[in-house]
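Posting this for the archive.
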Amino acid sequence: MARRSPISLERTPPPALIRAGLRFRRALQRAADRLLPPEGLAWEKVTSLQTTSVIAALVEVGAFDALGRGPASAAALAAELDLHADTLERVMRQAADEGLLRRRRGGYELTAVGDAFREEHSPTISHWARHMNTAAVRRAWATLPATIRTGEPSFPAIHGKSIWQHLAENPDEERLFANAMREMTGLVKAWVVDGYPWPESGTICDVAGGSGPLLAAILAARPRLRGMLVEAAGVLPEADRHLAAAGVRDRVELVEGNIFERVEADADVYALKDIVHDWDDERSLRILRTVRAAMAPGARLVLVETLLDPDDPDPIATRIDLHMLTQCDGGRQRSAAELRALMTAAGMRPGGVHRAGTTAMIEGVA
């Protein structure tokens, strides 16, 4: 049986425990690194690009799902999945070295980390792995040197269009991205539900909430609360299906809208999860002003974000920040003070900052 972490995605751990765990892990890694020559460590870091490719490939061919049914040799998996046995063995060998698989009686079994890439794992990370390995995402990361020189975001610089335009023109990648975003919400939704005093009744509006995984989780925990989901027209059919499957569709009104132009929703609380981090300050302010225009006096806006404290940055926020730099149009992680300043500029009075796990809820009041 794989050893499990004391930090659970189903319970909300104190943020201090998360930070302490990350610091302790880094301290252990640095202590172990002192046993090796720096050149060897440098080589290992450069070749870490292979890890993403290995994970995405094993997800794509169904190896993690197959191993979820029990340990197997590469030859047996290759026969089951119609793969090349020797090549699969070589890839699984590195997956074992990365701690995703464990050798067992001439075959392999999943570790707890590898299990997270099964399609049926809850929450799975399988779609995120495949998204990170797409050619468009990889090319944007490869353009990072030019971004460092110019400050221009990588994705539009190399592709000549925003990631949102690219996804709209490539439906398969758009579906993959939507599933990946649902997975990212799955990682923190229990923390978000428990970490903020969502109302017991009234109406909550999830703005640009995708297919509605966060809204569904909040409504499931608040049986007397009603919801609204504001999204682009093309997203609403998938939201309809997801909310129905979650058993909350009868309490949700689906509303077509555009975060830069109009949000026609009368609610007590509005939520924006991981939206403003996609954009620079100017466009983030446009989004916040659009939402503010819909808010009645006393209504609240809750930004759900991973905060980047410039004086004490944690590795999770730092990684997300660089991903925003390479993939989005001026996107970045911000501190609570920076987000509150944007809300003030949009005509809101800053409220509380509620931290839960690795995420935070920053409140603004109309």
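The first strand starts at residue 101 and ends at 104. Strands lie at 101-104, 107-110, 202-207, 225-231, 252-256, 269-273, 300-305, 349-356, 359-365.
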